[in-house]
Structure formats: structure tokens, C-alpha cells
Amino acid sequence: MSDDPVQTNDEPSLFTQVVRNDAFKVAVLLAGIWLLFYALSAFLEYPTYGVVATIRRVTFLSAVYAIAVLALNIQWGYTGLFNIGVAGFMAVGAYTTVILSADPGGVPPGFGLPLPIGVLGGILAAVVIGLVAALPALRLDADYLAIVTVAFSEIIRLTLNSPVLIDITGGASGFDNLPTSPVQSILLTDPGSIISEPTALGSFVFGLGEPLDLTRIVMINIVYTLGVLVVLLLVYLVLERAGKSPFGRVLKAIREDEVAAQSLGKNTQSFKVRAFALGCGLMGLAGILWYAMGPRASVVPANFRPELTFYIFIALILGGAGSNTGSIIGGAVFASLLYEAPPLLSDVAVKLLADYNVALPSAPDNVVVTLSTGDPLAVVAFLLANIDTLRFMFMGALLVLLVQYKPDGILGDRTETAAAVPLSDDSRPTNANAGGETDE
Amino acid sequence: MSNADDSNIPEPDEELDAEPESRDSPTEEAAKTTPKSLPLRVNNLRKEFGGITAVDGATFAVEERSLTGLIGPNGAGKSTTFNCITGVHEPTSGTVHFRDEEITGESPHKIAQRGLVRTFQLARELEEMTVLENMMLAPGGQSGESATRSVLPGLRSTVVEEEEAVRERAWETLEFFEIDHLAQELAGNLSGGQRKLLELARALMTDPDVMLLDEPFAGVNPTLEEKLLDRIHELRETEGLTFLLVEHDMDLIMENCEHVIVMHQGRVLDEGPPEQITENEEVIEAYLGGTV
Question: Which residue in A234, A247, A251 has the most chain B C-beta atoms within 10 A of its own C-beta, making it the best mutation to test that interface?
């Protein structure tokens, strides 16, 4: 019948296009986070290097969280594979890398392989362990995969923690003999010594920090964080392409209805294995960048407790499962606003009270004592002193609210097109305006 | 999709094995070679769930380019038969042959890749995906289903070219079923009838050879039903497709199918042209309730 019965597609204005752009959203978010932490740390009268280090730390945490969340998104967000062993796969990545690349002469000894090989080995090990865990469970229902992965992740952590393996893993005190930071290898002539002569690039980079009195360590950490941001961008691009393709389409179909996908000739088992392996490899990478080197380098079993997995889940739900951009936003919001901001805010509150000459009593030991004092200031002091614990309660409450009122997350209500080409109405072949009318 | 195009519109010539007394020995009947080729043959199929025998030695065959109806009262084992043919269930015993190859117990995706594609009684659309995405999922052999090909810069251009072709076909098929105006809609937002259309259209995107339709007209209004039937007949003629459909509407079966298989209590009670079926006392008793 008629050609165009319903919609008149207005071209969105340039402004809307820019605002809708994902890069713009992430940039605005990052700028907002930086501004917030600048304001907080400036208010607390941190010295310049302290302000810079705070912003750097938040950026680093946002980036590593984002990588881990992206990895979980390909498994859970896209394919519906409920992996609650994220921390375990991160541990496998971090431990394998340090064991492969650590100095053979140190304690515990490593293999002394070049760091890139160590990183590659760490990623591969995470993939292999992931497949060992998942291959039997992927054949079964989602619940079994969840049980197997969470059990595996705990088995991994407890094994690494075990005194039996102390000569290999360092046991509960962790693997101390960390390989040299890659940034130090680039910027210093003697990577092992922070005070050694800088390389040409090193003197340039350190020179950049001089006007602000930034130390070499601060500069090294900044360079490392920038490196992590580059890796994050690469991971994002890889997953965007993987998602916007026939591959991603099958993953989404598996999440929606595996039987339907099978009845259309898709070998869903193979797709699930591939998606799971990809995710585990990236979790390994996140673990490596986060803990095996860089400013937070510490390969200790306690880093890989199950709550790490849950943080990453909260971040993914926050951003919107199924969306890669949402994963980055979720990771950044979680790491900065939920994780890093509360302690600073607590300091700000203390300072504000002090500025108004309100003297806080010393914080009571527990809730009962606090309430029995009947002093509102004691309650405030108690809350501020326990902000680290309180933020977990806050996270739990937030998770409940999110699932109840915004289950799709910040970016979740939009649909990510699973195709390598645009699917808008403009994509309709031009010769075909034939059948317009229909049933209702 | 490699069948001969010379045999034109099917004629009602399948009476040759449809003598009334043949109903007692369907096994031999299917086994004996007939002039028309039989892309799908089911022999002595049994499926037990615990103590219940859902399918109890069903034997039948579907002729090339036919529109064969599978009828029977509720619980007769029609859907279970479908599930056994398409690999969703593994039959307890018996065989399924597709194009003279045994496919008994093969996994569903392999059977679908062979060109034996089904739809479901309750349409299984992928709710959180758009209609167009649903359509583009279906075609087999998409090189972009390899993650590496989709990601690596040098290889992705081929994927994009393929995608353009798939997208064009998806649009054409949507137009054929007159649901192209819904292309951007999430499949979960479609009405029941539209879902049925989408499911059929999507199954068609796999380039099937034989299609098994499980109650494709349930919940579809009469106008739409008419359209759907037109499409099915058109596909038989132009694409040489074969259809086996489960249906409860006897008038529809009588008017459109040249061959009808009646199941009752897991067995094939009778099969043959519609006129013959309606004269069978057993069938009337079991299913038609003596009304026809």
C-alpha cells in the first residue's frame, strides 16, 4: 500500500549526536570524576602531588575495574554465562605472570622470562583454567556453571594460600619477588633502581612532572595508568567488534533462548566455550594489570577474595549488562564514586565539622556503646570512623535498589545492535517499498 | 535446497500407497520405495519419559514438496515426535532418516544445518533482540560467527560485506511476510500472531529444505492464516520446500494438505489423503469425534 505509513525520521541535530556518542559520555564521566576528586583533595588541602596521586589512583582503579567488567560482560551480559569466579581467573593471570617473569634468584623464584611472555602466559593460563572449570559445566544449566566457577575460584585462592606451595606461590604472604615494572624498564637505565639515570624518554617524562614537583614514582605511576587506559581502549574495541558481528548475535541469542539458537543450526556449545574463554583471558589480563605490576602490585591471595567478584558484578549491573560502554561507565562509577569517594568524603566531613568548631568525640567502640551515649555527635563520629564498612552496606543497599528499580543499569535500556552493519530503517534495500500494510 | 525444479505443482498422485487396508502396516509401506522421493522418513520411533511412552513406534514418511499434515488429539505424541526428529529429544529407539542419511539422535544444530528446520508450538523469538537481528541470526555459514574474523581489521571487511547481503535478504523476507514495518521492534514486543510470522520467516532464513511447523496457525487470525498458507504454498512452488505441519484445524488440513498423518496414543493411526482419513472410523472416533 502506501510507502511510509508511520514514522518520519528526523535527523538528530549535531548536538544530540555528540551527546549520544559513547566516547563523549565516557569522557564527560571521567572529567566529572577528575573534577570531583580534585575538589575533594583540594578541599582537604592535599599537596599538589597528593592531588595528582589521588586523581591518578582513581583513574587507575576505574580502568582496571572497567577491563574486568568488560570481561564479565562478554560472559554474563552477552551470553548469559553466570561466572561468579572472576577473582579466581584474575588470580590465575596475576600469579602466572609473576611466576613466569620473576627473577630466578629471588624468593620465591620465578622463571625470569621477559614480561610480555609472562603476560601472555598469564592470559593463556586464565583461559585454560577457565576451560577446565567450564567445559563440564557449560553443558549443564546456568546454575551449575555458577556453582562450579565460584568453587573453582575459592579452590584457586586456597591453593595459592596453602603453606604446602610456599616455595612456589609464597603462601599466604604472597609472591614477593615481583618482576620489574615495565614502566621503569622504559624510563630508567637501571630499572631496578628508582634513582638511576633516566633514559632519554625518562628525562622527558620526569621533566614534565617537575613544574608541579611530582616525584619520579608519581610520574611512573601516571605513565603506567595511561598504559592501562590504552589497554582498556583496545579491549573495548575488540569486544565492540566481537559484539557487533554475527558472533555477538549468536551470543545474544544464546542468552535469550539457547534452544531457539540450536534449532537455527547454531552450535551453541562451541559459542559458549569461546565466549567463556575470551572472558576468562580478559579477566586474567585485568588481574595482571591490576595486581602483577603497576602502582598496586601485590600478588597476595587475600586480593582475590570472592568479594572482588561481587564488586565487578555490582559494577556491571550498575553500568548495564550487555553494553560495553555501560561496562566502562559501571566500572568507573563503582571504582571512583562507590569505592574511593566515601573515605575522602568522610575526611571532608570531619574537616567541615572542625571548621565550624564542632569537636567530635572519639568514636565509640561499637553500636551499643554509641547509642547508649545518647550523643548525636558520637553517632556521627562512629559513622565516620566506620565509613569503610559502611560503604559495603551502602553497596548492598544500592544493589537491591538497582535490581528493583533500574535492573537494566545506567545504559541498559538501550539496545546494542548485534550486527556488523547498521540496521536502521535506512538499511532497507531501496527497491522495496512494496508491502506496507499489515495485520495488527 | 538442491532438489530438482522440474516436478511442478504437486498433484494428488500419492494414492498409490494409500489403499484403505494399508493402514495396518505403515512400516512396510514407508520402507517400500515409492516413485516420489521421501526426504524425511521416520521408522518405528519410540520415546519414553520414565514410565510414560509418548511416542510408541511411529512410522511415516514425508514426500518431497508436499504439505503433509500431522494431526491427532492432545497427547498423541505429535510434539514429541517433532522433538525426536529435530534432536531436541533423543528417541528411545527407532530411526529418523533425512535425505537417506540417518540422523537419529544427532544434535539439534547439526540437523538444522542439514536443512531440516523446525518452528515451535510456542514461538521462541529472541525477545531482547530486534526483529531484524532475529532474522539475521538465522543464516548458516556466516564467517563472522568466528570471533577472530569479526575482530581483526583485515578480515572484518569480508564480514561486513556478508552482513550487507544477509541484511538485504532479511529485509526481503520480512517484506515477503509483511512484517517489515516491525523490523526495528524488539521481538518481545510483537503480538502472538506476529511472533508466529517472525518465527517462520526466521526459520526460512536458514535456507531450509524441509520445514517442520508445530502449530504455526495457533493464535493467528483468519486473514493472517490465509496469508501464511499462501506463503507456504508459494514457497513449495518457487523454492521446492517440503512442509510437515502439526495442526488442529481440520478444515485447514483438508483444504491444504495432500497427505495427512493421524497419530493417536503415540502411534500412527492412519495416513493418506484427507478424503481417506475422514472415512476412517478409528480416526473419527479418536480425533474427529464423529463430526465430519
Answer: A247
Calculate helix-pair angle for A86-101, A268-287, nearest 10 degrees. Answer: 60
Total count of residues recorded for chain B: 292
Coil, strand or helix at A7: coil
Q: What is the pTM of this model?
A: 0.87
Q: What is the band of A130 on the pLDDT scale with cuts at 50, 70, 90? A: very high
- What is the pLDDT at residue B269? 87
The string of DSSP codes covering A187-217 is: HBSSTT-TTSPB-HHHHHHHHHHGGGT--HH
Instruction: Using a CB–CB cutoff of 8 Å, tell me whether A256 touches chain B.
Output: yes
Put simply, the answer to whether B144 touches A246 (Cβ < 8 Å) is: yes
Q: Average pLDDT, stretch A358-368?
A: 80
Residue with cell 569517594: A341
Taking only the tens place, the pLDDT of each residue in A153-193 is 999 999 999 999 999 999 999 999 999 889 999 999 988 88
- CB pair distance less than 8 Å for B183 and A428: yes
Rounded CA separation B40/A15 (Å): 59
Residue with cell string 566516547: A23
ipTM exceeding 0.90, yes/no: no
- Is B150 close to A241, i.e. CB distance below 8 A? yes
How far is B164 from A428, CA to CA, in rounded Å? Answer: 10
3-state helix, strand, coil in chain B (%, to 5): 45, 20, 35
CB contact under 8 A, B117 and A257: no
Is A440 in CB contact (< 8 Å) with chain B? yes
3.40.50.11750, 3.90.1150.10, 3.40.50.300, 3.40.50.720: which CATH number matches B6-10+20-125+202-287? 3.40.50.300
Residue of B nearest to A265 (CA): B109
**Number of neighbours of residue A120 by Cβ within 10 angstroms:** 17
Locate the domains of chain A by residue range. 4-435
Q: Does residue B47 contact residue B80 with C-beta atoms inside 8 Å? A: yes
Q: Report how far apart, in Å, the C-alpha atoms of B145 and of each of A224, A351, A419 are.
A: 35, 57, 11
Closest-CA residue to B173 (of A439, A432, A214): A432
Domain spans, chain B: 6-10+20-125+202-287, 126-189
| pLDDT band at residue B7 under the 50/70/90 scheme | very low
Mean pLDDT of A413-433: 75
Return the SS3 of B272: strand
**How does pLDDT run across B261-282, given as a tens digit for each residue?**
988 888 898 888 888 888 877 7
